[in-house]
Amino acid sequence: MPVHRQLHNKRGSVYAYPNELRSWWESRQLHDATEDEPPDRQPHDPEPEPAVSGTASRDDPEIHPAALVGIPETDSEATGELRPGSKPHSSAWRTATLISVFLLVAGLLVVLFGLFGGSLRESILRRSSPVPIHSLAVLPFENLSGDVEQEYFADGMTAELITELARISSIRVISRTSIMRYKRLRKPLAEIARELGVDAVVEGEVLHSQSQVRVTAQLIDVATDRHLWAETYDRNLRDVVALQADVAQSIAKAIGTRVMPAEPGRLTSARRVGPEAYEDYLKGRFFFEKRTSEGTNRAVGYFQQAIRKDPGFAQAYAGLAKAYDILGTYELLPPNESFPKVREAADKALELDSTLSEAYTARALASFMYEYDWNAAEQDFQHALRLNSNDALVHHWYAELLIGIGQPERAVTELERARELDPLSLPINGVLGRAYRDAHRYQESFDQCRKTVDLDPGFAMGHYCLGISNVALKRYAEAVTEMKLAYALGATPVDAYGLGYAYAMAGNRSDARAVIEKLKRSSGKSYVPAYYIASIYAALDEKNQAFAWLQRAYDQRDSQITYLLCDPFIDPLRSDPRFNALVRQVGLP
Which fold has domain 135-272? Predict the structure, then answer.
């Protein structure tokens, strides 16, 4: 009786059940028992063996061993008849028959391996031996809906899977910012892997229709171009959080690694989310990643909509907290309007889910930039890193704290790790250049800022970075040129502040004063950090004006004042007794 084997998403299943084999055997015995005897049968011929009942056990000597595994006997054995010259059944005869059957099966297997050896061996090895992977990138999932309005959904699913995979402690997972540069960019996988420095990539497709979602994903070992794992999932949108966790767990198993100890419990208890709330959340993530004034404000609106539709949606609160962090640190909102909302949203997210590293990260930034609580910020950043050491944003924002408390070398280490996780991130590359400057590694600062500009010549902060490194190297004319480019591209208060400082250091006092007046006028229309104006006054060596504006910065809870210890822009003030008094007032170590 042939045995059929079918491969599907529950691994192999064999369709030849014991009761079917037993029924077949009994039917054969019943047929033999009722068959008429041959006409030439002689009285001295041996009697045929009795029929075997279905209740016989493995110990019954009359049961042929082949029956127990569903292997048919020879015709003569099945009928109980003997051909001329044959001998009655014996133990040795049965053993010889079994050996023959075994050799026949072994021979068939050899033939199969000869015909299908490559793919069959690969399939077996793939399932039995996880491939050691130390780093991977999730490439942007393709939107199969054909609707450009659904791009946010595919991008959001990509980002969420990256977040889940980043919880795997033993591998390096590239952050979203870097991988999104490959969206619609047709490049060989080997080239992408080389640029990102990874061993494997995850490719996928998403089809979203009403309340259903289909996700297809595959894991590819770039060195061999071998598919290590592939799967298709069809789920209700309410179960999409659990779906992402399932995909992450499957990939972790395929590469023979483990998920953080706290993670399996969280994954198995992933709550269901309302479809409309989840779509709003993905839209919020989509606009948050743009890091523009318009994009961040739209992200806030979508996160708030998601929370209204599902008040228990912890990730939406964490997203809202991070969005308000950006509004505060980019001076798009005054500190007293942005950072208290960060604290409120982050606390609520952690009340609902204490494993969200994003919420600890958001709260930590508010703790030191607005509340000046350095110890609380340190604890939250450390907790976030324990939960998700692959989050480049945690390393980036933690580095900002380290610069603030006067540890620029540790900040460089964190930012270099952030760059490993997000090698194409413009903000991380730019801030690393500033950290080198704060650590007095001026040539490294210049080289890193140049790399940032090479990544995107239109990135204003890249030119700002080159401007401050040129000031550190006392190349003031070049610094002014770069700061002018930054201001032309960005036209934000920080760009104006950099230009004013470069003018002052170059000895162009009138242009520096003009920038100060421009910033003062702007402060009547929108928020301008008082710290910026104080720094230009410091570069002009007008100390009384500088300290007056620094005091205003402290009164406004200006986040920029947290950089007092390392910022070379205010070096002319450090010998004044008022400087140490201000440091104690802010609470810096």
Answer: Rossmann fold (3.40.50)
